[in-house]
Specification:
Elements lengths: L1 H6 L16 H25 L6 H26 L11 H8 L6 E3 L2 E3 L8 H10 L4 H10 L5 H11 L4 H5 L10
Antiparallel strand pairs: 1-2
Helix pairs in contact: 2-3, 2-5, 5-7
């Protein structure tokens, strides 16, 4: 899965990640994915910890989430460009032609593991739900992919499917989040 491939892939002493190809695109893909998912996870955890019964602590958590979301955004934007806006760090053709085919859907002990895809990034899906993207399409999209996640990710997603979103919690509280 993308988590196994990128998130748990630590660079060697020269800063290179284990990879299937020798392309710079794959090294960039791993580095950027690792950075973006780490930031997304920090934001997800900060948002899940928000307790509006303690406004001072809630603002601290919201500030942590905001900082992590900014880092997440920057990592995702870096997929699109380096110093040259016309030259993405990961060429789409390289990803689809040389990297993605190493990740077929596998079934191990009845659990299906899917290829790299935003459709299988639990932290991002959970973040969407916790922030308030809770329409029926999003919930159904999440439900249909639960089998593709590790047990801890599945539990987090199931909790997010059943939680009150941060937006819903904040509406009408009078909590001033402008400093978050």
């Amino acid at each position: 899965s993308l988590y196994t491939y990128a998130i748990f892939n630590e660079p060697d002493e020269n800063g290179h990640f284990k990879a299937f190809t020798t392309t710079p695109d794959e090294q960039n893909f791993i580095r950027i994915t690792k950075t973006s998912v780490d930031a997304c996870n920090r934001a997800r955890l900060a948002i899940a910890a928000v307790d509006l019964k303690d406004p001072a602590e809630a603002l601290i958590q919201l500030n942590e989430a905001t900082n992590a979301l900014k880092e997440y955004r920057q990592a995702l934007v870096s997929f699109l460009r380096s110093g040259d806006l016309k030259q993405p760090l990961v060429q789409p053709d390289t990803f689809f032609d040389h990297m993605r085919h190493f990740f077929p859907v596998l079934e191990i002990d009845g659990v299906k593991y899917g290829p790299p895809s935003a459709a299988y990034m639990g932290a991002m899906m959970e973040l969407d739900l916790r922030l308030g993207l809770t329409d029926e399409f999003q919930k159904q999209h999440t439900q249909t992919r639960l089998d593709y996640f590790l047990p801890d990710e599945r539990r987090s997603l199931e909790a997010a499917l059943n939680c009150t979103s941060l937006m819903t919690q904040l509406v009408g509280t009078g909590l001033d989040t402008s400093s978050a």
